[in-house]
Amino acid sequence: xxxxxxxxxxxxxxxxxxxxxxxxxxxxxxxxxxxxxxxxxxxxxxxxxxxxxxxxxxxxxxxxxxxxxxxxxxxxxxxxxxxxxxxxxxxxxxxxxxxxxxxxxxx
Length: 107
What we know:
Rossmann fold
């Protein structure tokens, strides 16, 4: 995903863990527009990562990916259109369309 998104002109910061992602995000929350996370992160519940990111930058868009069904009510702000679930497998183009939809809703 990182390579594909970079080739499409996106600046991508990839992290191996939720805690590392949150650390980078805390350092400069306004620098990020979309957070793409997988439900299987082991070091922190994804809902916690998303909630903390939204507290730091309420305009951040979130794409939650999973090979399992995602129940957005797990996320307190799931009614917000900026939190989108993307079921695996998905194509890179589907990811780009999802990101572009989120970014266009920010304008």
